[in-house]
Each structure stands twice: as structure tokens, then as C-alpha cells.
Design goal:
Layout (H helix, E strand, L loop, with lengths): L1 E4 L3 H5 L13 E2 L2 H11 L4 H4 L1 H7 L9 H6 L1 H5 L7 E4 L3 E12 L8 E14 L2 E12 L7 E10 L1
């Protein structure tokens, strides 16, 4: 795996591209995980937690994960990607700086597994370090279209 210093803007910019990297490991989005997320957030909408009602009344044929639950799995899906071709090093810490884009494109059914892949789309110098903008797509395993599209801003601090 290639290591690139966070302040080597030229080398980092050489990694910007249209092609996504390899798939991450997969994570199951069980009904229990959905219920726990509902308890933590207070979002107990029936489409997520009432299994029988969701089977009867939901346009998705059963319960689905909260969009923000899917988003919250991104760190676990991308943090220790042993398939990555390169990594950023030499920084003090990394700060989640926000998002330019967030779309919940398709539902994640309870019991499905998801995986992610990403691509670097921008590198910018900031007073505190270097900001990387990465597009991350989370897919339900076996589905071509993403469930979630997230354009993440991460600040690698000096």
C-alpha cells in the first residue's frame, strides 16, 4: 500500500479520478441494529421498526434501515480498508468537516448487507491542514445502484 503525506498536495491530487476504488468489507443491517438505532435517535417510525406493518403497508415490502443509519456505517465500512491502494499519513488527526452532497437513493432492507467504495474528487489546502473531498457510495450487496451517495469533506490536520 502506498503512503502519501497529508501535505503532499501534488501526489494526493494525482489520486483524483472518475474510477471508484475496491469494495469494502460488508456489514449486515439487521432488524436488531435498526431497532437499536431507533432507540438511540428517537426515530421510531413504523417503516423501520414495525416488521409486520411494514410488510403489509410499506412500498418496500418490509422494514428498511434509516437513511442516517446507513450513513453512520460509513466509518466502519471505510476505516480499515485493506484493499485500498494508498493511504494518507503524517497528520495529527482527521476531522469530519461535513458534506457537499448526501442522497438516500435506494432503501436498505432489514437483513441486507451493505458495502461501500469511494473515489477522491478534490484536494484543497486549508489553514489547519489538507481537506480531501471523497465520494462514497454505499450499495446493498448485489445491487448495481447505490443506496447512499455521500460526498464527504475530511480535514487532515497538521
Amino acid at each position: 500500500m502506498e503512503t502519501i503525506r497529508f501535505d503532499d498536495l501534488e501526489k494526493l491530487r494525482s489520486k483524483i479520478g472518475d474510477q471508484f476504488g475496491p469494495w469494502s468489507k460488508s456489514i449486515e443491517v439487521s432488524q436488531d441494529r435498526i431497532n437499536q438505532f431507533a432507540d438511540v435517535t428517537g426515530d421510531h417510525q413504523w417503516i423501520h421498526i414495525e416488521v409486520e406493518r411494514a410488510k403489509r403497508e410499506s412500498p418496500f415490502g418490509g422494514p428498511v434501515a434509516h437513511g442516517f443509519l446507513t450513513l453512520s456505517l460509513v466509518p466502519a465500512l471505510t476505516a480499515f480498508d485493506d484493499q485500498a491502494e494508498w493511504k494518507v499519513a503524517g497528520h495529527r488527526n482527521v476531522v469530519n468537516y461535513g458534506a457537499n452532497k448526501l442522497r438516500f437513493v435506494r432503501p436498505v432492507p432489514a437483513g441486507a448487507s451493505v458495502h461501500a467504495r469511494s473515489r477522491l474528487i478534490a484536494v484543497d489546502s486549508r489553514p489547519l491542514g489538507t481537506q480531501l473531498t471523497t465520494e462514497i457510495n454505499v450499495h446493498v450487496m448485489g445491487q448495481e445502484k447505490p443506496a447512499l451517495i455521500y460526498e464527504a469533506l475530511m480535514l487532515y490536520v497538521k
